[in-house]
Specification:
The chain is α/β, with parallel strands linked by helices and about 240 residues long. It has a single domain, classed as Alpha-Beta Barrel (TIM Barrel). Helices cover about 40% and strands about 25% of the residues. It contains 11 helices and 12 strands. An 8-stranded parallel beta barrel has the order 1-4-5-6-7-10-11-12, surrounded by 8 helices. Strand 2 and strand 3 form a beta hairpin. Helix 1 packs parallel to helix 3. It starts with 5 loop residues before the first strand and ends with a helix.
């Protein structure tokens, strides 16, 4: 997974449409159309991995954009890795998605409520679980970024690495979707705390932000709003990081 640094386009879905939220807040979304069209656009631009999120699932606790996700998987084919989060609450949910063709499942709320689920899935499907540690004011938050857990991201990352997580997806919710730049210190702290890949997300506005996260030690960066708003192209970011 991520043998070299990657720029990973986000395809966040709500009500069957691609959206981007500001600071993880419902009601702040901006809509960008059909998920399949977005996925094809990024693959045509050279994306090797797509980051899919069922936002309705993240907020409501059960997957609500399954049809759109299935359509994206069918459209991009086996040559592109797909990682998916949002509403995956049980090992059975995760297994069904992995069988369906998802390469990596992203567990947030489920991993916080039942850490052993990480080991349970990883035992049968090694390298298939990313644990999502979304941080707001330095605290891991769950349920669509609406509930605090009291967990420190670095300490939680160590625990999930020990349970067999293939990587940590770290979202800096405080800057997510704002196009005002990244904060590299929390990412660097996570990278120092674990020996598994850390994928960074949140706040990317420029190619320099992408390079800053690469320098901080991230294995990949997920980019949403900046790409959809045309702040830079995927091709430009890939050239900058040497993809």
């Amino acid at each position: 997974m991520f043998p070299t640094f990657e720029v990973v386009p986000a395809v966040d879905m709500q009500d069957g449409q691609v959206v981007q939220l500001v600071g993880g807040e419902r009601g702040t979304e901006k809509t960008y159309g059909d998920p399949v069209a977005a996925a094809k656009r990024w693959v045509d631009a050279g994306a090797r991995t797509l980051h899919l999120v069922d936002l309705d699932g993240a907020f409501e606790g059960e997957r609500a954009n399954a049809d759109a996700i299935d359509a994206v998987i069918d459209a991009v084919g086996a040559g592109v890795d797909v990682q998916l989060g949002g509403g995956i609450r049980t090992a059975e949910d995760a297994t069904a998605l992995l069988v369906r063709g998802v390469d990596r499942v992203i567990l947030g709320t489920a991993a916080v409520e039942n850490p052993d689920i990480v080991a349970e899935i990883s035992e049968t499907y090694p390298d298939s679980v990313l644990v999502s540690l979304d941080a707001k004011d330095g605290e891991v938050v769950v349920s669509g970024w609406t509930e605090g857990t009291g967990l420190d991201p670095a300490e939680a990352a160590q625990r999930y690495a020990d349970l067999g997580a293939a990587g940590i997806l770290f979202t800096d919710v405080d800057v997510e979707g704002q196009l005002e730049g990244v904060r590299t210190e929390p990412v660097a702290q996570l990278v120092e705390s674990v020996d598994i890949p850390v994928i960074a997300s949140g706040g990317v506005a420029t190619v320099d932000d992408v390079l800053a996260l690469q320098d901080a030690g991230a294995a990949a960066v997920v980019v949403g709003s900046a790409l959809y708003e045309g702040e830079f192209t995927l091709e430009a970011a890939q050239r900058a990081v040497g993809e």
